[in-house]
Amino acid sequence: MAVGRVWVAACACRRVLRRAFSLHKPHSITDMENTLQLVRNIIPPLTTKKHKGQDGRIGIVGGCQEYTGAPYFAAISALKVGADLSHVFCTREAAPVIKSYSPELIVHPVLDSPSAVRDVETWLPRLHALVVGPGLGRDNVLLENVKGILEASKARDVPIIIDADGLWLIAQHPALIHGYRKAVLTPNHGEFTRLSDAVLRDLVDGSDHREAVRRLSQALGNVTVVRKGERDVMSDGEHVLECAHEGSSRRCGGQGDLLSGALGVLVHWALHAGPKKTNGSSPLLLAALGACSLTRQCGHQAFQKHGRSTTTTDMIAEVGPAFRRLFET
Ligand SMILES: NC(=O)C1=CN([C@@H]2O[C@H](COP(=O)(O)OP(=O)(O)OC[C@H]3O[C@@H](n4cnc5c(N)ncnc54)[C@H](OP(=O)(O)O)[C@@H]3O)[C@@H](O)[C@H]2O)[C@@H](O)CC1
Ligand SMILES: Nc1ncnc2c1ncn2[C@@H]1O[C@H](COP(=O)(O)OP(=O)(O)OP(=O)(O)O)[C@@H](O)[C@H]1O
Ligand SMILES: [Mg+2]
Question: ipTM of this complex > 0.85?
Answer without folding.
Answer: yes
